[in-house]
Write a structure and sequence with these properties.
A-D-PHexomutase_a/b/a-II; A-D-PHexomutase_a/b/a-I; six-stranded antiparallel β-sheet; Alpha-D-Glucose-1,6-Bisphosphate, Chain A, domain 3; alpha/beta; magnesium; 23 strands; A-D-PHexomutase_C; about 450 residues
């Protein structure tokens, strides 16, 4: 009996290689996944981590052992795996631990058409099947074929966002020794964009810095290079290159909410009146700008499975999260940092202002960013916060995802518990920095008091 409870997360499977995740476990997961999704084949890709090729091979053995074929696409970004799943109309498995340290690895799974497989949409069934033993398949084994899809992936993205007519741009790209170093050269080949590469060497030990651009410490090198070469913009990808962070020509970070608003406006220009999804932690500017441009904003919980489900239900054309995940209906509702980056460069290169001035149109409020507090009694602390703020004149509260409180002056905060750690995560937004800081400190005093 194999227990996967320590590595099955809300949206994927992830653990320390050799301790929690090994070839035997992955082989069983491959067999169980095949039982869940059926044939005729499963597409499998992997990142640059040392353990990834071997784990991908073990997974393929589990799949073929159930009589189903495997299409092996080799080195891939996660959004390239989603592309392959959509293009080939096959379920898929991507071996990556994204931005986690080198000792980790994991599996992101999807059904045909890049439909997500999360804890509530298949992972629990896989966990249970593995725990009880996957039934042996007595028929003929499936086969493994290889297919390189980098060129097809790049062409598809460039057809969605045309950069051929933009003014020449100089862009620094920090791949963090992750999969952006594999995909960026092909995606940008022949475009009027001079790419200044940083850390394009594929190296799962991450010798330069963690491939986690959400941590400001990992943007320092990119910011310095943007200033040094006088670039128009900087792009930073995480380890599996499904997220992209942007800095402007001054090397100042651009908020993912502002990117969400910009891309939303571009998509609404193509399809007026369309629905745009935003999670409840994105800036209030996002739904305001969407509505001003004739779109229909829709608020959801945090997390890609909720975003993708809501997009499927509503036919939404685009969705964005505060964490720099961007979802496109025309990309099988999957998230692609590369596609978002192309939109930013197309918008920048289609006019003459610098990126800082362009993005000022989409930045209206002061935000705290996510602030974590370690607490033993998450629900009790949240109850105290709700008590303190519930009686404020004009305050409105909801519990769509944690506790969100909007005050009469338009400022708001969201406080939600981590699913995996004893943490409360706080996000605050207000009209200016002083008002944001005051509200932030007041909430934290209750949370940490």
């Amino acid at each position: 009996m194999r227990d996967l409870s320590g590595i099955v997360k809300a949206y994927d499977i992830r653990g320390v290689v050799g301790e929690q995740l090994d070839a035997d476990a992955v082989r069983d997961i491959g067999a169980a996944f095949t039982r869940l999704v059926g044939g005729p084949a499963v597409v499998v890709g992997h990142d640059m981590r040392e353990s990834s090729p071997g784990l991908a091979e073990a997974f393929a053995e589990g799949v073929t052992g159930q009589g189903i074929d495997v299409v092996e696409i080799g080195l891939a970004s996660t959004d390239m795996l989603y592309f392959a799943s959509g293009k080939l109309e096959l379920p898929g498995a991507m071996f990556t631990a994204s931005h986690n340290p080198a000792e980790y690895n994991g599996i992101k799974l999807c059904r045909s058409g890049a439909a997500p497989v999360g804890q509530d949409s298949g992972l629990s069934e896989i966990q249970e099947l593995v725990a009880h033993g996957v039934p042996e398949f007595l028929g003929a084994k499936g086969s493994v074929t290889s297919r390189d899809m980098v060129a097809e992936y790049s062409l598809f993205l460039r057809e969605l966002v045309d950069l051929r007519g933009i003014r020449p741009l100089k862009v620094v790209v920090d791949a963090g020794n992750g999969m952006g170093g594999h995909t960026v050269p092909t995606v940008f080949e022949g475009l009027p964009v001079e790419v200044v590469p940083m850390y394009f060497e594929l190296d799962g030990t991450f010798p330069n810095h963690e491939a986690n651009p959400l941590d400001p410490a990992n943007l320092v090198d990119l910011q310095a290079k943007v200033r040094e070469v006088g670039a128009d913009a900087g792009l930073a990808f995480d380890g599996d290159a499904d997220r992209c962070f942007v800095v402007d020509e001054r090397a100042e970070p651009v908020a993912p909410s502002a990117i969400t608003a910009l891309v939303a406006v571009r998509e609404l220009a193509k399809e007026p009146g369309g629905t745009i999804i935003h999670n409840l932690i994105t800036s209030k500017a996002v739904p305001e700008i969407v509505a001003e441009h004739g779109g229909e904003p829709m608020r959801t919980r945090v997390g890609h499975s909720f975003i993708k489900q809501t997009m499927a239900e509503t036919g939404a054309i685009f969705g964005g999260e505060h964490s720099a995940h961007y979802y496109f209906r025309d990309f099988w509702r999957a998230d692609s940092g590369m596609l978002a980056a192309l939109h930013v460069l197309a918008a920048l290169g289609g006019q003459q202002r610098p990126l800082s001035e362009l993005m000022a149109e989409y930045t209206r409020y002061a935000a705290s960013g996510e602030i974590n507090s370690t607490v033993d009694d998450q629900q009790e602390r949240m109850r105290r916060v709700a008590e303190v703020f519930g009686d404020r004149n004009g305050a409105r509260a909801d519990e769509l995802d944690g506790l969100t409180v909007e005050l009469a002056d338009g400022s708001w905060f969201n406080l939600r518990p981590s699913n995996t750690e004893p943490l409360l995560r706080l996000n605050v937004e207000a009209r200016d920095t002083d008002a944001m800081a005051a509200l932030r400190d007041e909430v934290l005093a209750v949370v940490r008091g």
